Amino acid sequence: MKSALKRAVKDTTKNVRSIHHGSDAHWVGDGFPVHTVFSYQDLGTELTPFLLLDHAGPADFGPTSEERGVGWHPHRGFETVTIAYQGEVDHEDSGGNRGSIRPGDVQWMTAGSGVLHKEIHGRDYARRGGPFEMLQLWVNLPAKSKMTSPRYQELLDRDIPAARLPGDAGSVRVIAGEFEGAKGPARTFTPINLFDLRLHARHRVRLDLREGWTAALFVLKGKVSVNGEAANEGELVVFEREGGEAAIEAASDATVFVMNGKPIDEPIAGYGPFVMNTQEQIRQAFVDYQSGRLGRIPSTTH
Question: Which of 43, 3, 45, 49 is nearest to 19 (CA)?
Fold first, then answer.
């Protein structure tokens, strides 16, 4: 009886599959010093529906009157989710959308059938300079939604609910999905939970990461133990799909980004700024881009 009970308890745990350290830093444009934490080229099968995670910074920029960032470029077939921790980024796209994100804010852009956009440091931030740190996550779209109309969601800090953890353990900001009754404001095409977890030293939390769902977490700050396995700053923890619960304990004050979603088990074909299901669709994306069918740069830009 006792052994059966132990097996039942053990079976609820979502075990750690692997722990990874990201790539060496490289520049994206002249405004984003980036470590690629993972991409669909190395962990596409394990981490579907998530395609890529870039960690920009932490870095310090001096004051400037010049425009810094990434100029106009295309995307098709997925969504970009940019989470601001420090610094500011201005977004503009060929659909006429513009927005600024500052610490605590999130920008969620659905490229869908195709969009041109640019991402630059916010004007006020560029003038004064200072610390800079952001994450950008690429989220796949299912085949039926690859060619959906582009859209833009500006999720401000004040609109993102935070659930307080018992015993003053910390908080969970819910960007997408739901945690303990707090529902994130992001509209998604497939079921996804995105959590910004802040955990105080020597405290712990148990997360329900859903049986059969993809789950991973990235440690931005501090050191944590995940189901008894140590994970340091800058490391990515990938879970098995089986099981549901994960125990996270902080050895020091920690900031952890949690990705959890229902898998999209469809073929992935990607090249540069396009992620589709077949190579023929990738070739068509380049043809459409070159012929202006992914949008045109507005005549008046900021």
Answer: 43
